[in-house]
Every structure is written in structure tokens, then in C-alpha cells.
Amino acid sequence: MRIQNPIHNEVFAYWQWAIRAGTRCLLAGAVVATFAAMAPSTGFALTIISVTSDVPVFDTSVGGSTNPAVTVDGNTSSDVGSFVEWANDGAAGFLIATFTYQFDAAYDINAFELWNDRGQIDTGISNFELVFRDSIGLIGSFTDTAVQPVTTSATPQGEVFAFAAVPGVEFVDLRVLGSYGVVTNQFREVRFNVVPEPTTGLLLALGLAGMGVEGRRRRGIGHTSCLPAQRPSLGVM
Questions:
Q1: Residue range 65-79: mean pLDDT, rounded
Q2: 179: exposed, middle or buried (Cβ count in 10 Å: 0-12, 13-18, 19+)
Q3: End-to-end Cα spacing for the chain
Q4: Would you give the distance in Å from CA 216 to the centre of its chain?
Q5: Number of Cβ within a 10 Å radius of residue 153
Q6: pLDDT score, position 229
């Protein structure tokens, strides 16, 4: 007759529990990591369907464009036709100018990036205001001052301005309120940062996790971790 060793049985039961716990937690972690990797990163591209400006005449003497849409064409260099430039208003001084960007849908915006002029002839914009609007009217605004460009590189880094997320934006008016230029004003590119939304897969994973927690509650199990409900006691000091 074989004699059962209670200590051996407890050790075996404990290792069974540990293996089940490790497997559950590993699978849960893999699911979360997979869907997190699938989630879009902050700043995914939005579509701008229209760019207009109230600048009466654009200066093309040094290669500037007459089309304000070049400020969102993705070309951040100082190539011919990749920037806009306009003259100040003679004796009246700086000419306030507005560039209006219309999106293809409503987005939550939380940052603005500006590629100013390249610092070669000091024409970059300084003070500016962003006016956020939807199809009904004003949502909010943001004001700041861009740093004067000091590099003559053709493709310097953009300057990022972060702010609290503004929801449901369909239009942004970039109002240029000041310039480092004496005669003319110039900038090359702008970009708007979008607050990403969770992917469908991530929402599904979170929903399944919630269902699992609710199922444990209905079965009277108090814990909500990936571990099995009860860990066997070894009974060994």
C-alpha cells in the first residue's frame, strides 16, 4: 500500500497554482502590450482641406509662394516655393496677418508646431495667437511668442507649443501679431498635434477585462488580479 505524503501533495498543488498564475498573467500582459502597440501615437496626421489668408499680396522676390497652403505641404526647408512672405505696411509698421486652416473633421488639438524662417535675414514671426473654432463659432484661443531663429540651416527643427487639449476643433486661425523682420515677415510650415483616440482593439481588451472582473464579483470572488482565486498553503514553516 502506497503512503501519501501530505507535504508532497501540498508542494505539488502549490506548483500547479504557480504555473496557472504565471500563464494567466503572461497572457494578460501580452494582450495589453499588443493592443498598446497597435494604439496610434500622439500626433497622428490630420487632413487639412483648406488654407486661406487675408494677406493682400505675398512677396515672391526671394522665392516665397503666393499659395498659403505651402505652409502645410510637409516641406520644412527653405526651398523656393516652400514658404510664405509678406511685406510690412510701410509707415504703419507690422501688418497683422491671419492664416485659416480648415480640417476634414473635428479633432482634439493639444499642441502646435511652427517652422519659422531660417534666421538668415531675420524675418520670422514672433507673437502669435491661435483661435480655435468649430462650425458654430469660437471654442478657445492660445497666445505665445516664437523664438527668433538663429540658425541658417535650411531645415532647422520646428518649435513646439503645448497647451491643454481643445476639443472638437474644425478651424484654426493663426493670427501673426508680430515679427522679427523689419521689412518683411516669413514662415515655412505649421503642424497641429492631435490627441489620439484608443483603437477598437484596445477598447475591446479593456471591455473583456471588465467582464472578467464582473464575472469574479458575481461568483463571490473578491480579488480582481490575473492570479487564481486561492493560493494553496504549503503548511511548512
A1: 93
A2: buried
A3: 29
A4: 37
A5: 12
A6: 55
44 pLDDT more than 80: no
- How many angstroms separate the CA atoms of 22 and 4, rounded? 28
Per the structure, the complete domain to which residue 218 belongs is given by 1-39+205-237
Query: How many Å apart are CA 20 and CA 96, to the nearest integer?
Result: 68
**Chain segment 144-173, per-residue pLDDT in tens:** 999 987 777 776 678 999 999 999 999 999
Which grid cell is 196?
A: 489620439
Same domain, 4 and 94: no
Q: What is the CATH number of the domain that holds 59?
A: 2.60.120.260
Answer for the pair 51, 43: CB distance below 8 angstroms, yes or no: no
Cell reading at 71 = 505652409
Strands annotated E in 123-158: 127-133, 138-145
C-alpha cell recorded at residue 75: 516641406
Residue with cell 494567466: 24
